[in-house]
Amino acid sequence: MNEEYIKRINAVFEYIDANLDSELALETLSQIAFYSPFHFHRIFKMITNETLNNYIGRKRIEKAAALLLHKKDIAISDLVTQLGFTSSSTFTRAFKKYYGQSPTAFRKSNPHKFSKISQLNSKNGQIETNYDTYICNIINLKKWTTMHANIAIKEMPKQDLAYVTHIGVEGLETAFYKIIKWATPRNILENPTSKIIRVFHDSFKITPPEKVRMSIGITLNQPIAVEGEIGLTQIEKGKFIVGRYEIEPVDFEKAWTGLFIWMNENGYTKAAANPFEIYHNNFTEHPEKKCIVDLCIPI
């Protein structure tokens, strides 16, 4: 795919993320991408596999879902206003169409059992969970987290990243290969403080796996010029829950779920920033093929 297309659409992604409470007109977004509206819409759909309107509508509903999960005091009527819906009934219909239940029912659901993956085993959008089994699974997950994670609250500095965008869980290794291939001849990896990072712009709790957008990046210690699909971004300084794990790749979902449970049970609330992973080794070189990784939740 044309690298210039990706670079320009990345700028649109960032604008949409920051302005979901505003009008996001085709003309405005096409100007950000420096394309005609027709050409922009065609390229956007080619990259995201969604029309612009569908993408914006989904992101607004998913933002509402995230706020319902993480901000128990926010009123549903406030979400209608904040996210630009014309009425509560319009918002409720759109939400129920996407998640199979009303915003009120969604809020009452336990946040750890609700995920798009759960719906694969559901009927008519309603999640079927045996309560006793669920509680047993949570207890086992908490024990697993205690055994495998070293968890701390840390103030982390601002981090500059060079990154590539990847959407979905398929072909993820290609994105890691691209950023490593770019960094290697520039000797960035030779700096012991440089780390590979994966930033999650969407949550697997509320977004279908094939639509989750991620930035695969490498930390930078000095300014550098980039071109094509390699972009520059920042992780702002702040307070984070940091869980250090030494785990197999198949255990990442379990590790993230356990860390969010730890967050809730210890009275912390997720901040608006994006969670991310920091990799400290090449798992293929580990004697047990394990990743040494920090999972970071902004609070």
Textual characterization of the structure:
Residues 10-109 form the HTH araC/xylS-type domain. Keywords: DNA-binding, Transcription, Transcription regulation. This is AraC family transcriptional regulator. The chain has ten helices and eight strands. By secondary structure, the chain is an alpha+beta fold. An eight-stranded antiparallel β-sheet has the order 1-6-8-7-3-4-2-5, sandwiched between helices. Helix 1 crosses helix 2 (26-33). The longest helix has 19 residues, at 52-70. The two termini are 37 Å apart. The relative contact order is 0.12. Residues 112-129 have low confidence and may be disordered.
Compact overview of the structure:
This protein is an alpha+beta fold. It is built from ten helices and eight strands.
What are its keywords?
single chain; alpha+beta; Arc Repressor Mutant, subunit A; 10 helices; Multidrug-efflux Transporter 1 Regulator Bmrr, Chain A; 19% strand; 2 domains
Provide a count of the helices.
Answer: 10
Count of spatially separate domains: 2
Termini separation comes to: 37 Å
Gross CATH architecture of the largest domain:
Alpha-Beta Barrel
**Strand-pairing-aware structural class:** alpha+beta
Protein name: AraC family transcriptional regulator
Keywords: DNA-binding, Transcription, Transcription regulation
Domain HTH araC/xylS-type: 10-109
InterPro entries: AraC_E-bd, GyrI-like, Homeodomain-like_sf, HTH_AraC, Reg_factor_effector_dom_sf, SmbC-like, Tscrpt_reg_AraC-type_HTH
